[in-house]
Fold these 2 entries.
Entry 1:
Amino acid sequence: MRIKDGTDGGIINRVNRFVDSEHLVPAVFLVLSFFAWQFSGFSGAFVFNQVLTRFIRDGVLVLSLIIPVVAGMGLNFAITVGAMAIQTALLLVINFQVEGATGILSVIFLGVLLSVALGFAIGHVLNRVKGKEMITTIIIGFLFNSIYQLIFLVGFGTFIPVFNQEIILSRGIGVRNTVDLGMYRNTIDKLWLLKIGAWEFPIFMILVVLFFAAGIYYLLNTRFGHEVKAIGSNNEKAEVSGINVNLIRIKVIILSTVLAAFGQLFYLQNIGMFDVYTAHLNADVISCAALLAGGASIKSAKIRHGILGIFLFHTLFIVSPQAGQNLFNNAALGEYFRSFVAYGTIAFALIINIKNENK
Amino acid sequence: MKNYLKNYKIQTPQIIISFFLIALICLAFILDMDLVVLLNESLIKLVMNGILVLSLIPMINAGAGMNFGLPVGIIGGLIGLCLAVNFRITGLFGFVMSLLFSLVICLFLGWIYGLILNKVKGREEIAGTFIGFSFIPLMNYFWTLVPFQNREMLYPIGGQGLRPKISLENYFSNVLDDMWLLQVGSLEIPVGLFAFYGLVCIFIYLFFQTKVGRATIAVGENEAFSKLSGLDISRIRLIAIIISTVIAGFGICVYSQSYGFIQLYDEPLSMAFPAISAVLIGGSTGKKAYIFEAVLGTYLLQTMYLLTIPIANEILIPELTEILRTFITYGIILYALLIKDRRGNKQ
């Protein structure tokens, strides 16, 4: 993609700097989403409101990926484990019929506790597979998914006593496919809702996501953050300079898992319906693709990549089925395009990054 | 191979699976299930899934890791099957033609796949996973837009786009399963099916006896040394990846004729993981794999699945089979990733 340096440096150098993948990928997404939006026929305000909803829904999940990337561990596909942790907490609390603020607080408390424990375990596993973290996190995510299913589809009603009959399948064993979160739905989304014409700004939730972003930014500039960056750029060097690499890596994964748990909590309360067995399934792929769409790579990621990426990726995500319907008279084609963009972005980033690394 | 069998050590996962299998057989016996019928079925299941598992061997031995990009080869085979059905070629001839079509397509797909994997040496597993994942939605366009004419494959309404599940009943379902069926009492041995399985095994065995095959193993064992001795590593890896892809294409053809349907669209998405877990159960480390391991692993795993289905139904939780299946699949892959790396560090 790079243009050869010519004699008249100035402009070409500037173009050259712009055409690296950090800018190229977001630019491609920008062009694609613009055209898809044009063909979809949606109004600007509709798309904007939808994207902003996705921003508060998926924001923290995407942000939870940043620290592991900075630590040189690649994309953490095991954020689904954090998502399952908070879902486990949620189901337990619903089962014990704890309601209101106590309910929410106990969900958060239990969820964080579980994510710390699971993050600790995943961190240990990842320390034994250095260089193969990403494939391992994918497998860990899938493995936990089956354990999660085992607990809620088989364990509930056999080993775990059921107190809330509403969430149980009629056969008495296993949790239903969907659990209504009516009492939690949109409780904080509509807080400080600013309306300008057809444009809606849920100020409070935007601030919450930005608060998490600021927190991660701050963390990366503390002593801990510098150590994370050090092990990200060179493992051995960091070891020599007295950093306990394995410990930092475990902390990084714990942090990522806890953040993912919060992310999934915001996601669920925004949707309001809890698909027990599917809500967490694509959290990893969608979040990773969004982060990469913003210009991050598997070696470097910044807050701005995450935030920009959510806007670009989800614009494309929202408009492409309708664009497919209008262009080819077949909404399914837009759906396929969505999946292709999600998986393809990750595949592209992996191939380009690893290729450059091998050189 | 002889040497290998002498040195064969039974490892923890095999012990666990074997015990589990014995327990299941006892349970099946207590529940008064027909064990001969189960045995017959287990033989078919072995070959049905076995060739997909065998397809992993060349890539593992070339040092390109476990082929998480198996969907690439599977899709090549699916196109071959669809072409044969589209031209309405029936019977054994139809099946052979589907193999030939998929051979051509998989040669091409494997070549491209190999070129990409050669650029991501050392990280083929994660790259392969996402190459496979992203190839599937891309191919969904193909399935939707391809101008095939056979009404039996198309959506009944609209007449455009292939069905997600195409029946092979009028074409070549079970042609291999029923070929040369040997009846011994109530025991049925599908000799034709086993002959085909044997052919693929012999092909892989012979491949590793050739000069290129030996070079493949050398590259897998020690890349730096092979480079010094003047081997063209990229070319050898490319050959191994192409062979893996072609056998994967054959694998899905055999799978589909046993199953009786061609499954398109998102179906290949999660087919790589069970195949990989089978070769690992057989005792492979994921760095080197033998034909024996692939056969043993497939048989253990498939028989176990076969036994869990009626037992799970008996205790009224039918989902249990699927959950257990995924649990074992991913558990064993994670185990292999961990073990493999520990060995790698020691060297």
Note: Chain B touches chain A at residues 68, 116, 119-123, 125-127, 129-131, 133-134, 136-138, 140-141, 144, 273, 316-317, 319-320, 323, 326-327, 330-331, 333-334, 337-338, 341-342 (CB under 8 Å).
Entry 2:
Amino acid sequence: MTLWGIAWGYLWNRKFTTFLTILSVALAVALISSVLTLREETRKRFEEEGQAFDLVVGAKGSPLQLVLSSVYFMDNPTGNIPWSVYEQIKNDKEYVQSAYPIALGDNYQGFRIVGTEVTLFQHKWVSPITGEERFPFKLKEGTFFEKPFDAVLGALVARETGLNIGDTFVSSHGFIKLPEMLGGHDHEQHPYTVVGIFDYSNSPFDRAIFTSVNSVWDIHAEHHEEEHGTQEEGDIKYEEWGKDPSSMITSVLVQLQSPALRFQYREMIRESTVAMSATPVEEISKLFEQFLGTAKTVLLAVGYLVVIISALSIMIGLYLAIIQRRRDLAIMRALGASRIEIFGSVLIEALWVTALGILLGYFIGGGISRIVGYYLSQKYGLSITSLIITSEHITSFATVAVVGLLAGIIPAWQAYKRNIARDLMEL
Amino acid sequence: MVRVENCFLKLGPKTSFYCEKFYAPPKSKIALWGPSGCGKSTLLNLISGLLKPEKGKVIVNGVEITSLSESKLDHFRGENIGFVFQTFNLLPPFTALQNVVLGMRFSDTIPASEWKKNAKYLLNYVGLGNRLYNKPSQLSVGEQQRVAIARAVANKQKLLVADEPTGSLDPKTADSVMELLLKLCNEQGLTLLLVTHDRNIAERLPQIYDCSNLVHEEVVA
């Protein structure tokens, strides 16, 4: 029978309070673990998807907004750029391996309709995270779009809307579904027909509906004539739509001959066009460092606060337990146990509680990450792994273990310095 | 086996313990008898090293335990002295078998590989071979005392100290526990020091040491 066994025996003897103490540690660890997991996994997934393209070229404004709107379909676009920019980039074979136009404007049930060219569906890249080739545009059924108002659905769109090959649907103006009183309206004159459905790719493309650029513009040229009549300054040149429907687009996704050319080509875009460019992976890194870094710090601070509260509950629980079983400790001393062994057995109880709390908390954290991950995959098409171990996890778990041990020191010291003769005589 | 010489210990602001001389030869069985508060338990605690005298010597098995460091004393106690208390002898979370194993856990007398075998043998000896895996709460008070007796000799100790071992038992159970203690001491050649306030229990042992004059009130002039 080891000291570990003796400590475990006493913990098991007061199962309910032990369980509650373990649970309090576990909840703190779960919070910390899930924050670390979600941050790390979302960062990795965002960066992985961000590596799909070297640059995004779009209207001048916030580079992050441009990246979020054109690569992750999450924010409003910064504006529009002339089609000629796309042509210029596409033909720049010295620097550019491939370029794809993106035209945004409508949604269907909140899913964005992305006007592009079918060449996008041949796009592949190597994931820097897994080292595997990423190819998100595998058709599950049907074909790519060929005619105006043909639509190919991302896997999530097909699942959520229930649309199948041959079904038709009407898009709504804007990037989110708005009620009519807030300006939302449908383009009922131009229904789309589903001609293809992509397989799941665990990427933002799962949440998009792809169609030709012309389809997007045909709708908006007519819509603009009906609703607005004139061009707004710095906005789309609406009057050109009818004459040349391919005149304006939201952005261009660019794959360069080498990632090393990113900086140089960005400068070239800045100097030679009216547009600006952004590197998705850089913008996402900044987003995580500047904005989400603060959120992470706040959540971790809450987590560690709960750890301290849990440590106090470990300390109080053990302290009371030591008072209750001072007779037992005295008997152990009478049987030959040294003060150090008594100290150690109490400290081991704290360690058991902390270790089990960390283990349970890690799995509860995994559960939380799984639930949030499910939401992220539904909302943003980002698939994350819920159970991971990073150096940050190890550091935080080690911190919790040390705090748990420190919480055990005071009760252990109380046990260490007890007067055995008095304890044996008192009861 | 046990020798106490001129042991002095202050018990309170106006009370002190003093034992000029006590001697228990090997294999002796002595009742430390006296009324409550007379100092008999204090004498037993001094002999077992649970208390340290301010003056005087306690020699057990040829070792002057009053000069041992605390860690050496812990070790010595585990290997040489077996304890039976009046009540709450056993550790509640553990089975009878584990409680007896605990008696061997803190000393090196019995190799770890033999702890279970030895504990089972002793529990059989005290008539509890069928209660090995029962916890204290599942045992009667008399059975708990038997487990405590088994544990007290688990390290083959030669000195058994018992503080009111029958104090919480009904007469019939007390009688059987006393029989077991005496049988064990006779068969294994143990020295027994038994604290009791009950004259009938004390008279069952060959020798009685009267503890009535061990605690002294200081007279304030």
Note: Chain A has two domains: 3-44+287-426, 55-278.
